[in-house]
Design goal:
With 249 residues, this protein is of the alpha/beta class. Helix content is 20%, strand content 31%. Helix 1 packs parallel to helix 2 (58-70). It is globular, with a radius of gyration of 17 Å.
């Protein structure tokens, strides 16, 4: 399975402009099975979503168009107004246009996200082209029990989309590696670059294998795309040879 990550500089509260710029980046990287955009890639991370969160589904419709055009899955989170209830919603869009979504479960209380957004209740795993994929958003990365791989809900790939500030980027990189190793899974972490009204971001987007090794990485502080081939058969062989997941709590 071939995966491309897109580390983006997001224009604040300008979804149409961000869609146009993201489209150019996607078209330049054709040939992958999955394309991953950052957290709230169409607006920037808005803890006060009034007037910023999308109400018309424009970014979801764009994701559906791009998934069909590329014959691939396109995913990333969007600030979404659901009948007056704001969600940090991670869409996973299939090539035929149907989609699944995960609403961010761990809201970032330090930044006030919990005051305006409604937390999702459920962990979400999707299936695509022979892989089971766990959908996660930013702050979820700090809570390992929520992403624990298990025999009853086994996944092969965990995707974390984020707006993770530069000041805490060491934690981002360290925890991504930990999640890969402890869950014997590929881990994809896609963070933004640039600035918003509250923070600056350096990216450090990466694709890791189940040993914690880097398969592909984006350049710090630059808009960037990176691609890696994920060998699902090799992952299965590793889990069979070293079956630590069978001993999990």
């Amino acid at each position: 399975m071939k995966v491309t990550i897109l580390q983006r500089d997001i224009l604040w509260a300008k979804p149409e402009d961000n869609r146009q710029r993201a489209e150019q980046a996607l078209i330049a990287e054709q040939g992958s099975d999955i394309y991953v955009l950052p957290e709230m890639w169409s607006t920037g991370f808005a803890t006060h979503p009034e007037g910023i969160a999308e109400t018309d589904g424009s970014s979801l419709k764009w994701m559906q168009q791009m998934a069909a055009r590329l014959n691939a899955a396109v995913c990333g989170s969007v600030a979404t107004d659901v009948n007056g209830s704001y969600r940090n919603r991670f869409y996973f869009v299939y090539p035929d246009g149907h989609y699944e979504y995960y609403d961010k479960h761990h809201l970032f209380t330090f930044g006030g996200e919990h005051k305006h957004f409604t937390a999702g209740a459920n962990r979400v795993t999707v299936e695509f082209r022979g892989a089971r994929i766990l959908l996660q958003v930013c702050y979820d990365l700090r809570f390992p029990t929520f992403s624990r791989n298990s025999n009853h809900d086994r996944y092969d790939i965990a995707i974390y989309v984020a707006s993770w500030p530069t000041v805490r980027v060491k934690a981002w990189s360290t925890l991504l590696m930990a999640r890969a190793i402890e869950n014997q899974a590929f881990v994809i972490g896609v963070n933004r670059v640039g600035k918003d009204p509250g923070n600056d971001y350096c990216g450090a987007s990466v694709i890791l294998d189940a040993y914690g090794n880097t398969l592909a990485a984006c350049t710090l502080n630059e808009e960037c795309a990176a691609t890696a081939e994920l060998d699902l058969e090799a992952l299965a062989a590793f889990r069979t040879k070293f079956p630590v997941l069978n001993d999990a709590d």
